[in-house]
């Protein structure tokens, strides 16, 4: 009787797990195909987004939707889609099928697809590492799907948006890869499962603690309940305890490991940056863990540059507050770490400095969180677990309040958002020589009472760079040479990064989800963006990149797939030039 009573439950769990595994596979395949299409196949005319041939697998002949085809060195792929955006971003309805030379069609899983796409492009070592990371990302996505909880269980809108980004970067080949993290540690500290955890603390001789900028010790006291304690992220503890300088300091009684204690904090979408609604700061910790492309440590010079940029950009932000009300940059006024240089070499001491490094980013005040109900952009321009675009629900609420049809409401909504975001970002670049990094995870959106976007915050000064023609070395004389070089981008590189983040990563995904497969609405949304760009170009004196953009120049798109495959640092990523939707619309109107 007991067995019979539990058998349906076990079967239900098994079926549910099978369905979740299928969703994880589907999303991994979608990321791989979209990356490959955008970075490789489309620029080389090796893809057909409206494939009409009769030579198709039987299951695709009988399904609705249109097919795309991709030529590969050893054959070709076909897959059914329900939409393809003007930027070549697709949503897939079937598994990809591959037909090699003199072979029949066969469906591929994510691992087989990754091997097929990567092998012709690189050597065995690089392909092997890429395949491991694809497998790791897929396994972790499965884990998150099994342990996720509904976003509506969290009253804090910012926290809910930080902790419910199950899919991650839609145009990255390994959006959820986290190397070397155990299953238990993953569940204990990952935002995707609503984690909340204590920091690990060390009793530290005060002479070893270094802080720059504002003094954050009151925050550390509030968290730990002690005056003599310094924290680290749980995923960094083992590395710290194994460090020879730390062991030497322990032997001399300068450092004592206390374990986990104090108030718990919530991981945000970046994983290593932690949030507590009652603290004045987000705290960005070091983790020697590769998340997607980068090992997420706070390099010693990044601790210096965060505080220096906050100070240097103060006047810029004050001016921007008058020029573009509603657009703000989140300052990072403090950084701390430990200095063990007296116990070893400079290189050894810098390793400890980076392990213990913390950057303190100003939190949004409680009044702003209550008034604007902020959300991270990446949590809006994505799918929920039922396959619905999250932002469409937001727009529908605005439409209902305003008594508008969904199409006009969508255009108004995008207008309000894009005007704030582009106005601030382009002013900073072309008037002040400051290249922000407004990708979806760095952009926080606040809303007016009617539901329209009214506020935009850009965060993470690690990605903020300065153009040397406007910021010559004498303006940065307080920085040492290594820190100064880390904050510079050439004018071309600054435009590439800003153009990609703002127009491709951010607004490209916004339009994709807001249009919901309607080609006519997608064209109208891009036309609105074109109008906004023209206004900004006139406002800023028609800088050449904006003048060219308004005339239909291609958009720079960062190569996440090739950067990861070739093991390049993110700073050295290449860019693919995408045909501009503005030019495509212009041609269709003239035809």
Automatic annotation (TrEMBL):
Aerobactin siderophore biosynthesis IucA/IucC N-terminal domain sequence ranges: 158-380
Domain Aerobactin siderophore biosynthesis IucA/IucC-like C-terminal: 413-572
A Pfam cross-reference name: FhuF
Superkingdom classification of source: Bacteria
First and last residue of the signal peptide: none
InterPro entries cross-referenced by the UniProt entry: Aerobactin_biosyn_IucA/IucC_N, IucA/IucC-like_C, LucA/IucC-like, PvsD/AcsD-like_thumb_beta, PvsD/AcsD-like_thumb_helix
Residues spanning the membrane: none
PANTHER family given in the database record: L-2,3-DIAMINOPROPANOATE--CITRATE LIGASE
Family: Belongs to the IucA/IucC family.
The name this protein goes by in its record: Siderophore synthetase component
Species this chain originates from: Pseudomonas psychrophila
């Amino acid at each position: 009787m007991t067995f019979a009573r539990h058998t349906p439950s076990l079967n239900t769990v098994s079926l549910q797990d099978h369905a979740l595994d299928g969703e994880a596979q589907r999303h991994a395949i979608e990321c791989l195909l979209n990356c490959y299409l955008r970075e490789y196949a489309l620029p080389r005319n090796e893809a057909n987004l409206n494939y009409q041939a009769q030579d198709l697998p039987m299951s695709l002949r009988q399904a609705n939707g249109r097919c795309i085809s991709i030529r590969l060195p050893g054959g070709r792929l076909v897959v059914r889609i329900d939409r393809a955006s003007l930027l070549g971003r697709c949503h897939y309805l079937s598994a990809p099928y591959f037909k090699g030379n003199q072979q029949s069609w066969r469906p591929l899983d994510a691992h087989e697809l990754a091997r097929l796409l990567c092998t012709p492009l690189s050597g065995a070592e690089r392909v092997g590492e890429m395949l491991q990371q694809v497998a790791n990302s897929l396994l972790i996505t499965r884990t998150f799907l099994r342990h996720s909880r509904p976003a509506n269980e969290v009253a804090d809108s910012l926290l809910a948006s930080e902790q419910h980004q199950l899919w991650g970067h839609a145009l990255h080949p390994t959006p959820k890869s986290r190397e070397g993290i155990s299953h238990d540690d993953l569940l204990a500290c990952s935002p995707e499962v609503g984690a909340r955890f204590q920091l690990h603390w060390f009793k530290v001789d005060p002479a070893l603690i270094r802080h720059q900028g504002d003094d954050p010790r009151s925050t550390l006291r509030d968290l730990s309940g002690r005056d003599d304690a310094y924290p680290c992220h749980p995923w960094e503890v083992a590395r710290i305890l194994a460090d020879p300088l730390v062991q030497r300091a322990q032997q001399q009684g300068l450092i004592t490991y206390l374990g986990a204690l104090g108030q718990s904090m919530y991981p945000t979408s970046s994983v290593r940056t932690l949030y507590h609604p009652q603290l004045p700061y987000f705290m960005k910790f070091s983790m020697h863990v590769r998340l997607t492309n980068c090992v997420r440590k706070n390099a010693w010079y990044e601790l210096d540059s965060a505080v220096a940029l906050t100070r240097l950009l103060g006047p810029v932000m004050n001016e921007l507050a008058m020029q573009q009300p509603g657009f703000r940059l989140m300052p990072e006024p403090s950084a701390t770490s430990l200095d063990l240089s007296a116990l070893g070499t400079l290189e050894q001491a810098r390793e400890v400095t980076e392990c213990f490094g913390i950057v303190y980013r100003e939190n949004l005040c409680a009044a702003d969180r209550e008034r604007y109900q902020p959300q991270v952009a990446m949590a809006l321009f994505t799918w929920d677990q039922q396959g619905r675009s999250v932002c469409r629900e937001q727009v529908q609420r605005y439409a209902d309040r305003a008594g508008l049809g969904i199409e006009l409401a969508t255009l108004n909504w995008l207008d309000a958002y894009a005007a704030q975001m582009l106005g601030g970002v382009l002013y900073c670049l072309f008037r002040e020589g400051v290249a922000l990094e407004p990708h979806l995870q760095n952009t926080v959106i606040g809303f007016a009472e009617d539901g329209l976007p009214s506020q935009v915050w850009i965060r993470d000064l690690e990605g903020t760079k300065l153009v040397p023609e406007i910021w010559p070395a004498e303006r940065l004389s307080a920085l040492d040479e290594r820190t100064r070089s880390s904050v510079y981008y050439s004018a071309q590189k600054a435009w590439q990064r800003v153009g990609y983040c703002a127009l491709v990563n951010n607004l490209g995904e916004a339009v994709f989800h807001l249009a919901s497969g309607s080609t006519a609405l997608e064209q109208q949304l891009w036309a609105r963006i074109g109008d906004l760009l023209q206004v900004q170009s006139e406002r800023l004196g028609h800088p050449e990149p904006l003048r060219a953009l308004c005339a239909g120049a291609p958009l720079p798109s960062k190569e996440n797939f090739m950067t990861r495959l070739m093991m390049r640092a993110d700073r050295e990523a290449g860019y693919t030039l995408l045909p501009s939707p503005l030019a495509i619309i212009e041609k269709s109107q003239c035809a």
